[in-house]
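Forum > Structural Biology > Help requests

Title: Can anyone predict the 3D structure of GH18 domain-containing protein?

Hi all, first post here. I have the sequence for GH18 domain-containing protein but no way to get a structure on my laptop. I'd be grateful if someone could post the structure tokens.
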Amino acid sequence: MRRLAALVSLLLLPLLLPTPAQAAATPLQVYGAWHCGDDACIWGNVRSTTDFDAKNHWLIDRGDGRPSVNVVVLSFVHPVKLLHKTTDAQTLDGVPRGMTADIVNYFAGRGIRVMLSIGGITYTTAWNSALAENAAQFGRNAAEVAQRLGVGIEIDYEENSKPDLVGLQAFIDAYRSVLPYDPSGANPAARLTIDLAAGDRWLIDIGRKATADWLRTDTPVLDYANAMVPARQPSSSDAIANWQEHLDGKPTYSPPIPPLAPAKFTGAFYIAEGNKVRAECADFTASLQKSTGSFVQTAAPKGAGLTPGMLGYMFWAAERPSTKGVTTTPPNSCEGGVGGGATAYAIPIPMPALRQS
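Reply #1:
Sure, ran it for you. Structure tokens for GH18 domain-containing protein below:
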């Protein structure tokens, strides 16, 4: 009988022990799309809002009148043209002609934050040239455009080999001299972000500098980073592994990359890639934003930050990101995927003041 009692006690022991606490899910705050216009990210033509709406209505209406996203990043501004305030066939005073106040208001009037992205992989050499020529004036010009249009600015400087970090620091310092960091997020023009690689093994020098000096929770300079899409759509496990690299840092690198606070970055997926419509665009139930949602909402700090959970998701890219392949225009609009995620995750619109720790 004693042996039977002991055996029963052993069998019941797991039921009697306290269950480890599960990390509480932190609501997503950033849920947005990069937008390439109708000419593969050039934005060279002025468009009527009627034409624009016909091809992009899903962004402002997920099917029930509510927007599918809370931020749109118009991509891309040419760095040298912005520095020189160039006016030519595709550019007006340094800004692509298609990035008009009407397009900004199309989104902002529905509670969607708007940003302009400077650079992209095509304009890497132009970033180098603008920084080398006059980084501070480049930063001031970016701040002037942000104020004039009521938008934020994204730094998309994709120099993997010996980036000009001194120049980039001067650009950021100049921008912040005009528009100081605003933890409330109330001033759209004060929002200044940066794009990093999907993980810590590309854009290493930029990632190290941004994590160590600009994305700290105690002395923030930039609002947050976007961990960009990798070369092709990842699996759920590969996406999580990439993001975990940012959380962990790279202590074995020389010099090391410090850990990044979960509250200081988003993850990203393709919605338009190749010749097929992605579930991330069309079907939330089968999407990566659904399968990775638990991780993104509960990712634990690993030496930086205090609160769990990444900021949210970004999607590459609305309308026509390349001259070939699928677009997100009807019948391929993304209410079912991106819009479905906005509903499932109760994405706040407009974007609230972001977590700071």
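The longest helix spans residues 124-149. The chain has one domain: 24-344.
Shout if anything looks off.
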